[in-house]
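Tokens for DNA-protecting protein DprA. Go.
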Amino acid sequence: MGRDEGIARLRLIRTGGIGPVTYIQLLRRFGDPEAALAALPDLARRGGGKAPAVASKEAVEAEVATVKRLGARYLFRDTAAYPALLAEIDNAPAALIVKGDVTLLDRPAVAMVGARNASGIAIRFARQLAHDLAAEGWTVVSGLARGIDTAAHVGSIDGGTVGVIAGGIDVAYPPENAALQDDIAARGLLIAEQPPGTEPRARHFPYRNRIIAGLSLGTLVVEAAPKSGSLITARLAGEFGREVMAVPGSPLDPRSQGANLLIREGATLIQSAADAIEAMGTIGGGVRAGRGASYVPPEPMDAGDAERRVVTDLMGPVALPVDEIIRQSGLPAPIVQTVLLELEIAGRLERHAGGRVSLA
């Protein structure tokens, strides 16, 4: 795409209140980002709120200059360069910032995640497992955290690894992994959703986890506490229709409780790279590796005041699946999506994992 269109897309993406789902719906509805930007005030009015402050052209141009200076570039959703597996999920990032070997996105990928305070034996096993998977032509995806994530990257960096960053692509977190992050940029691939310079905050890590799970045919957990981020990644993988796998551990070690729980709930028990490859091979026909956007939202339809009331009356502060709103309202899905679009731009809607929404 041309520079002007790229700038307009980023202005839309960086505007508050416009999430990944809304971004795609706006492009689908108005055809180009400039028209979508111009329509925001009217959409917000219909949604019963004020239009969000649009990101300035100057701010976005400064971001683009920084990305270029860092040796990175953008991959926009609904373009051929975007990872196809990630595009399968409805809330995939509107744009990725990448640095390194993007051809790694053309290979089948497996996510490896686990405890930050992992045991020595688990770190050793994860490193060897990642090495063996990469040697078989798999790209190993992880989140550059301490412990298992670091072991996964170190084990696979010679064969193909992708590091997904919670903050900006130029921010190393944890700081002790700065050298590893640089090495991945040189020999693997770094991916970030946030603009350069963004320090990672707690709210960024669930967003990062969905990218890790979304890029991969399966997510493999090696040691994890029952309420850890690793189990969130595994749960997301299951919601995305991907394979969930876990390495069993001693019941005497609290760090193994999460992985053992996943196995008890139906995750595939993994003892070798061959086990993981066999497990993911059973679902490979349902999703595809490589690149090229595949998510197409429903054709938009205008909503009337009566239809808006039906939808908003069904909603409240507790998150409800969009499919349930469609079912209970009896309205066509495109009309419900239009109402939700207007509410989100008006600042009255919050989107949650699993295709759920609530009133703000």
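The chain has a mean pLDDT of 92.
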